[in-house]
């Protein structure tokens, strides 16, 4: 009963905390709320008119929603780059940043699930995903494996930080025997969520653009570049707007992870380009469409030719220690690398897989205003949740939010 009483107090104290703050904080949360309301309005249009309100069609059946889903799986998996040094390798430098990384993972996973719901058309069909009730098709369908690993990883990333923060809220130390096994499991699970998502595409033989052995490793490399890059940007904001001190050497260590992963991602990209264009076959048409256009159709050219230079520029700049240790330059590199991988792993991966179709038809895709509105609303929801989680976690870690039993 005492645990329930403490948890009730934690909930009430957290609610009080997240509803108070500076003018900037309230303006920020108000802005996110407005964007979410716009997203909800756009989603209501989709519910009324069906997926016909989007730019998707019978030729291109995955669009902006699944592009963001695929990218955010990588962002969620990137939390392991902080979990492993902290809990497994006992690197004290990462300790203050790891809870922020796990909060980011939780927010990213919730956005992933929201994008899946949006792409299914509406919540009314979600019963199909319930084992024993719907048509779950386990273990044959890779999609069912994806549902399991994503929800499992979400559970791990909620329970470990919750336990640690719950103990700290009571001014007690957390017991490593309780959370370290889960941390070890999360390391393997993080790799699993991204590999299973890659296998979901890789196993579709009729889509040669995805059907290659390098897709899984490239997913991991891009995730461990874009995810920690976002974590650095988030830590930069936290350092400048809160009293939560993140040491410079912590940022520099995460930057080194980004640098190595960005190089590996770029090498794999060059390898794929060589395979597609050195000895092209009719299976290379999707790549030709993406990079050069096909039969006068070139909707993705501005996207991919924005992504590649940004990717190369960020990777080259990060190679130089002097530039990487200059935080203004580092933040710029992380920002453009994040944008570059979002484009490459979103539109640059999902859409060309459908173009041209199995019968050679070229039907281009562009997201509608409804899709863009829903997407922005989901991103705003994720940022809103992360803001709340980080505000509570930071105040507990600073000792400003503590359990005070009534006498």
Structure description:
The protein has 407 residues and is mainly α. The protein has one domain: Formate dehydrogenase/DMSO reductase domain (Formate dehydrogenase/DMSO reductase fold, Up-down Bundle). It is built from 15 helices and no strands. The radius of gyration is 22 Å and the shape is globular.
The main β sheet shows up as: none
Domain module tally: 1
Structural class: mainly alpha
Strand elements, count: 0
Query: Radius of gyration, Cα only, in angstroms?
Result: 22 Å
Membrane topology: Multi-pass membrane protein
Transmembrane segments: 25-46, 66-85, 97-118, 147-166, 178-199, 219-238, 250-270, 300-320, 329-352, 372-394
Subcellular location: Cell membrane
Organism: Wenyingzhuangia fucanilytica
Question: How would the blueprint of this fold be written?
Answer:
Elements: H1 2-18, H2 23-49, H3 64-77, H4 80-88, H5 95-119, H6 142-169, H7 176-202, H8 215-241, H9 248-277, H10 285-292, H11 301-319, H12 321-324, H13 327-345, H14 347-350, H15 369-397
Brief summary:
By secondary structure, this protein is an all-alpha fold. About 70% of the residues lie in helices and about 0% in strands.
Structure keywords:
single chain; about 400 residues; mainly alpha; Formate dehydrogenase/DMSO reductase fold; about 70% helix; cell membrane; DsrP-like; transmembrane helix; transmembrane
């Amino acid at each position: 009963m005492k645990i329930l009483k403490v948890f009730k107090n934690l909930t009430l104290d957290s609610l009080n905390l997240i509803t108070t703050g500076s003018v900037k904080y309230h303006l920020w949360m108000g802005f996110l709320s407005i964007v979410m309301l716009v997203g909800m309005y756009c989603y209501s249009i989709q519910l009324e008119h069906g997926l016909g309100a989007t730019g998707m069609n019978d030729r291109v059946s995955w669009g902006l929603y699944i592009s963001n889903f695929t990218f955010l799986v990588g962002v969620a998996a990137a939390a392991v780059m902080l979990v492993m040094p902290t809990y497994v390798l006992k690197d004290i430098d990462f300790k203050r940043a790891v809870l922020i990384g796990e909060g980011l993972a939780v927010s990213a996973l919730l956005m992933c699930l929201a994008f899946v719901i949006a792409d299914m058309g509406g919540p009314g069909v979600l019963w199909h995903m319930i084992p024993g009730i719907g048509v779950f098709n386990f273990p044959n369908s890779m999609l069912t494996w994806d549902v399991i690993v994503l929800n499992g990883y979400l559970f791990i990333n909620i329970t470990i930080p919750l336990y640690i923060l719950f103990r700290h809220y009571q001014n007690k130390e957390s017991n490593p025997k309780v959370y370290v096994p889960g941390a070890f499991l999360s390391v393997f699970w993080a790799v699993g969520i991204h590999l299973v998502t890659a296998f979901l595409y890789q196993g579709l033989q009729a889509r040669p653009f995805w059907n290659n052995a390098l897709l899984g490793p490239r997913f991991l490399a891009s995730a461990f570049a874009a995810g920690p890059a976002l974590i650095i940007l988030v830590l930069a904001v936290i350092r400048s707007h809160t009293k939560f001190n993140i040491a410079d050497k912590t940022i520099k260590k995460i930057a080194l992870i980004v640098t190595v992963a960005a190089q590996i991602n770029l090498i794999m990209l060059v390898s794929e380009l060589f395979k597609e264009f050195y000895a092209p076959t009719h299976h290379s048409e999707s790549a030709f469409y993406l990079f050069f256009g096909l039969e006068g159709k070139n909707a993705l050219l501005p996207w991919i030719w924005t992504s590649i230079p940004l990717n190369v520029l960020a990777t080259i700049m990060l190679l130089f220690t002097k530039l990487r240790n200059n935080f203004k330059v580092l933040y710029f590199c992380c920002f453009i690398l994040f944008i570059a991988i979002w484009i490459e792993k979103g539109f640059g991966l999902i859409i060309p897989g459908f173009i041209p179709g199995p019968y050679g038809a070229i039907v281009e895709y562009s997201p509608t205003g409804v899709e863009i509105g829903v997407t922005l609303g989901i991103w705003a929801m994720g940022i809103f949740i992360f803001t709340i989680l980080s505000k509570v976690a930071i105040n507990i870690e600073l000792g400003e939010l503590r359990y005070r039993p009534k006498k």
